[in-house]
Write a structure and sequence with these properties.
- 36% of the residues lie in helices and 14% in strands.
- The chain is α/β, with parallel strands linked by helices and 551 residues long.
- It has an eleven-stranded mixed β-sheet, with helices on both faces.
- The radius of gyration is 23 Å and the shape is globular.
Length: 551
Amino acid sequence: MHAGSSLSRREVIGLASVLAVTLAFPAAAVARQPEAKLSVDDLKAACRIADLDIPEEDLKRILPDVQNFAKQFAEMRALPINYQTEPRTVFTPLESEPAKGPGKITARVTAKLRKDIAGLSTEDIAFSSVGQLALWIKTRKISSVHLTEIYLERLKRFGPKLLCVASLCESSALAQARAADDEIAQGRYRGTLHGIPYGVKDLFASKDAPTGWGAEPYRGQTFDYDAEVIQRLNAAGAIMVAKTTLGALAMGDVWYGGKTRNPWDPDEGSSGSSAGSASSTAAGLVAFSIGTETLGSICSPSWQCRVSGLRPTYGRVSRWGGMALSYTMDKVGPICRTMEDCALVLAAIAGHDPKDPSSVTRPFSYPANADLRKMRFGLALSKGEKIPEGSIIHTLKNKVGSFVEVAVPQIPEGMEAILMAESASAFDEFLRSDNINKLENSAWPDYFRSARFVPAVEYIQTQRARSLLMAQMAELMKDFDVLVTPNIGLSTLFLTNLTGHPQAIIPDGVGDKGIQRSCSFIGHLYREDLLASVANQVQMLSTYHTLRPTL
């Protein structure tokens, strides 16, 4: 993997399945099975059953993928799943311990802040933390209107270069900012995010701007309501200044406007699919941004663009009003310059939403009591992987209570059937329409077509196997407070997106060959407060989060 690379879902799945270490699945589970001999005629017959009209040339192209399914499903059938193992129809992560106390959600700033704004340039202000900006707004050292104008100017100046802006929300943002200033002047300060400008991934419905999902067939699509995450940020007084780009239908960094760029090297893509959210945050075009992750879409661009990202536990934040990709894997989270900022934003957007049956309210209290000297860390590495030279992980080893390498559950490749079947279900109408032919230079059309040949029984079997994975992960986490892994965590990324565990990622400098590094932390379910507290302490051991790209 080089500095300009961005992992596709298939590459992540392949690497995870090859590199992960077996914990509990027996060897029989991954034994090679005879390859089924399927023909195009078989696919035509299946098309008749599904009432699909897929051209023969398309069927020929996807035939190798479908032939490979039989081998993968044979591996799944070898798993020791008894009749009592149930799939999770409305997906709920498996907690090893029930939540204690009421679902109270609180977060406060712990960073040392500068009270005076005098002498700072507009760029200094733009790259300040959310906590710092909040202090200046609360004490009226700067107005929300002025701060919003700073970010709007930067969005106009650098957005076209980075291709990170899907829609600029100038008029509505300035109206929101004026309202925020009026409220604050009247003593009605709502909290840390009041008056703070942000960007939101353009897969969330918004009344104030089109929602194009990064895909040409949906360019100009409008909604007459706001997604729940936008509603909660509105309630917190935050100012939406832009809809940020995403790779078409939440894959990669290529959208209908081009390829979103990495501010540290505009010749590179930003990775995806929360491409514009990470790029705009890294470039100081917004104070913070909102992304989503199904299989790496917060972590990967955060690594590429050297920012901090927090992928919450599945269900911690409502998905309502967002484009569905995988009903049981999609997660909403913040991308910021610091991990503490991520905690502040998460506190504003977390909690149960009756419109999203998978959403929950669990306690969240940042900062949590995280004494590194007493904490148990597990180190998760892929087979043959080593801690990068110069990584902050080396420093961390000497500051914690215990630090041991762990083996994590191996993921059978057939588990991809969950994402395949659910995404194809979400885009069934799209697949059956002529619009699918308008989505060019994308792997999605054939991915959706291939997914139509995942049998329903096999999909349910993968969900039952997922229940086993969740139980194995719960057992593993009993011995640790946090797992740590280099970069995005190739050995854990697919696993934790399946089990619903939260992940925090912070920049970790640059290696000898100029390749950016990150450090990831995986926490217990619904313990993002502890996870963010740990990641924040580790982040403060370096100054990587204070560096700025040259634009």
